[in-house]
Amino acid sequence: MYLPPKDRLDRLYKEAETHQLDKSLKREQPPKTIWGIRGYPALFTSYSISVIGQWFDSIALMVLFAYIWQSSPIYLGLIPVALALPHVLFSQFVTNLLKRFHKIRLMAFADCLTACFTIGLFFSPTPWLALILLSLRSTANVVHYPIQQSLVRELIPEHLRLKAVSWNGLVSQGAKIIVPFLGGLFLTVLAPQTLLLLNAAAFLISAAILFSIQQLVPSTNTTKTTKTTKTYAKTSFYEQWKSGWLALFSYPLLLSLFSLSLIGIFCIQFVDSQFPILFREISTDPQSLTIVISAIGFGAVTIMSILNRLKKLTHLLFWISLSLVLIALSFIGFSQIQAHHSAHFLLVLGFICGVGTGLSITTINYAIQTIPRDEEVASIASISQSLTSLVVIVAPPTGAILTQVVGVQTMFALSGIVLIICLSLPVLVKVKQKRLSTKKKRIHYDSSGL
Predict the structure, then answer these.
(1) How far apart are alpha carbons 101 and 118 in whole angstroms?
(2) Membrane-crossing residues (predicted)?
(3) DSSP assignment letter at 311
(4) Residues 319 and 363 sit within 8 Å (Cβ to Cβ)
(5) Which residues lie below 8 Å from residue 50, measured CB to CB, with a gap of 6+?
């Protein structure tokens, strides 16, 4: 039997190894587009349907409370409390659930519960019962944001994460523009309660999509799951809650971004509910308010579309600061508008405010996706959701009281000025620290020279 020379055998072995390696590289090649990722298009569809349903729902609630039930301002003021308070109280319990249950399944069950409570709202005869059902529904919905952030981190490669974040923002902001218009059309032919059924149907469709992909999107490896389940079963909620906060404080950049974002949200919520009062005082035409709301939505969609084309977002502190400066300038501009100002001026101010809003939302969500470790994303997203909801509860009534005292236009100006002052403080601290460090170096140099 003839044997080839040794060098021929070596070459054949190398060729075989190269062929196997080439095949494995082809299999493991990361997807070029976000839509090529297994399971993500279904997740995105589920999210989009539920967001659109929620906007129909918000229109129905406003009409029901204000027009059908003729509710007092107290009831109207309790709606955001009923929606936000469960997020404040229960968001940080979500991490505990994620370690024990399949993420997709958990989100699907939450959608089913949300649909059930929404159907209950359809049959609700009184505002009090509606507020209770809203609170229960919001409690079921608490799991969505942390799971969504965790799944994006788990499924999406690093070079596509900015696209995932911006696509989610585009759906949310786009729905804010389109759905109120469609809801108004539906209300001309349908009862307001019917829009609640549309939301219930949207969440049931979302749940069906999620159940269909529960096997396609694994939460973790099976070996890891059993180990982590046993480990987390032994740890208390307090220890897990503490570890989440310690994780946040271990990333100075993320902590700075969170602080600036919360200041921005607080100032926005201060005056957000006062827009109707502002335009009531300067103009008898309600169309001015709709022009500004549309311009804000268009500005947010525009900046998110631009960010969607990028692969990576660097210098996050700069972008969050820029977003808050734009919002502050728009608020100062709104404080100066008069009845003689044209619609073009209102459009420019609304567009600037929208660009700032869209940039802020995208930056903070991208930071949650990229700065912490994989296992910390859900807990940090839960903390973000909890703190944001707390601001949503505290800021609007505080802003309403101050508006009564100082006036609505002064309140807009104060919000813009406070934002700029808060942004300038870190810069001043850095400049002072730099001067102190150079002074110490100079003293050390002089003493060594002596």
Answers:
(1) 25
(2) 42-68, 74-94, 106-123, 196-217, 244-271, 291-310, 317-337, 343-368, 380-402, 408-431
(3) S
(4) yes
(5) 111, 144, 202, 203, 206
DSSP type of residue 220: S
Structure tokens at 343: 């619609």
Please give the Cα distance from 429 to 364 (Å, whole number).
23
Distance CA 132, CA 75 (A): 12
pTM of the model: 0.82
Rounded Cα distance, 141 and 402, in Å: 32
In this structure, are residues 274 and 409 in contact, taking their beta carbons and an 8 Å threshold?
Answer: no
- Cβ–Cβ under 8 Å, residues 202 and 49: yes
**Region class of 39: left (phi > 0), else alpha (psi between -120 and 50), else beta:** left
DSSP 188: T
Distance, in Å, from the CA atom of 368 to the CA atom of 241, rounded to the nearest integer, reads: 17
Say how far apart CA 313 and CA 162 lie, in whole Å: 7
291 CB neighbour count, 10 Å cutoff: 17
Q: What's the Rg (C-alpha) of the chain?
A: 26
**Residue of 36, 24, 248, 45 whose CA lies nearest to 156:** 36
For the chain, give every domain's residue range: 39-217, 237-437
Q: What's the distance, CA 224 to chain centroid?
A: 29
Give the residue from 264, 265, 245 showing the smallest Cα distance to 255: 245
pLDDT in tens, 211-245: 998 886 655 444 344 454 455 545 667 787 888 89
Determine the Cα–Cα distance for residues 174 and 168; give it in Å rounded to an integer: 10
Which amino acid is present at 289? L
Residue 60 near residue 192, CB atoms below 8 Å = yes
Asked if residue 104 lies in contact with residue 150, where contact means CB atoms within 8 angstroms, the answer is no
Rounded-to-integer distance, Cα 305 and Cα 410, Å: 34
Annotation: CATH topology of 237-437? Growth Hormone; Chain: A; (1.20.1250)
CB neighbours (10 Å) of residue 144?
19
Architecture of domain 39-217: Up-down Bundle (1.20)
pLDDT digits (tens, 9 = 90+) for 162-215: 999 999 999 988 888 888 778 878 888 888 888 899 999 999 999 999 999 888
Exposed, middle or buried by CB within 10 Å (0-12, 13-18, 19+), for 2?
exposed
Q: Which amino acid is at 153?
A: R
Residue 207's closest CA among 117, 105, 56, 120? Answer: 105
Q: Is the separation of the CB atoms in 180 and 54 below 8 Å?
A: no
> How many other β-carbons are positioned within 10 Å of the β-carbon of residue 320?
24
- Same CATH topology for 39-217 and 237-437? yes
Q: Are 117 and 136 a contacting pair, CB within 8 Å?
A: yes
- Cα 5 from chain centroid? 65
